[in-house]
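Comment thread on ticket #2218

A.B. wrote:
> Attaching the input chain for the structure job we discussed in standup.
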Amino acid sequence: MNGRNETKYMRMCIASMTSIHWIGANAVNYAERRADIEVRSRCNELTVRRLIFFFTTVILLTLTACASSGPKRLSGDRFDYNEAISRSSKEQMLANIIRFRYLDFPVFMAVSSVITSYSYEGGVGVSGTAGLAEAAGGDSASASANLAYSERPTITYTPLSGQQFTIRMLAPIPVEAIFALGQTGWDIEMLLLTGINRINDVENLSFEIDPKGSDVNKKQQAQRDIEDLRRFRRVVKLLVQLAKEDIIELQRPEGESNVPKLVFAQDVPQDFKSAVEELRSLLDLEPNRNEFRVTKRFTRRKSDEIAIHSRSLLAIMSFLAKGVEIPHAHLADGWAEPFMAGQGADAIAYLPLRVRSQREPPGNAFAAVQYQGHWFYVDQSDLLSKAVFQMLLALFELQAPAGGAGAPLLTLPAGG
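C.D. wrote:
> Ran it. Output below, let me know if you need it in another format.
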């Protein structure tokens, strides 16, 4: 082999060895790179799984919390509906009292039932990708959730009407019921002034509409009504005073006829003898008798009887309607009669209920309704009117419960 060929052969060997070294180096780099990609892929896959687990856990906890909120809503929703029904009852009664004052017809509706359904609907979606190729955009994880809540209250109203309801509204409230309410904490004087129309020949303020005719006749009638009311209030004060001292008591004897009796104590303390004598004189009771059967008849009343005439619920409402303040514009248009013309504040002072009126909505009202373009309301600071109003609601529940079977129903969904 000559020198030139030997040099060429050596160059080819060196080139071959260099190529083998480069291929080997690349093979090693490729293996390391592949191993690195596999490690990163596994790490990313683990990260995606952790993200999926995290999102799933958060969503499930959210749905669980929503599902357990039902019992927590019971207390709040119950008192909300209770407050709404209470406010509605007061407004309905006030509206009917105002209707009486305007010679309009009262209308009553009862809330028969309130049914509320709660609905929770939710969905969860979780997805993730993990790949080897960086060109594919890398690894990714995503999660989605939706939660829907709805409340669907359904309220059923029962119109209170019909023969039985009307009879109960027109029936006089039992005298025993009035005295029983007094024993449970109600103001007995207020109950008697409102619920009793007449005791023997002593009459309460009339609940009738002011008489038609000349202003002179109206004024004379108003003066007579005030005098009657003063005598009646005096009788009531004496009854309350003596009842508190256990000197008189309304009894229903056992084993005898179902007739209550007004009983005077045998021994009267010296300090109260004059009050007993005054009461007997005002009611024209026999001086030497201590037991008087309660009756409703006024003509041919016997010496052992006392006539007590209670009012019906409608009569009480008509009587209390006298305390509604009629706007001057309505009086000028003849929409309602003025109460006790010419008597002014003297007459108003004898009324147990005061209902004020104004154009703007009242700011601090116990109960308020809008009627004929004006707001009528019972002021929150008028404690006497509030007590009378609450008593009227109690008598209404006692005397006129919800309508009987067969009454038409009105069911309204209150939800949106």
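A.B. wrote:
> Thanks. Noting for the ticket: The chain is about 50% helix and 20% strand.
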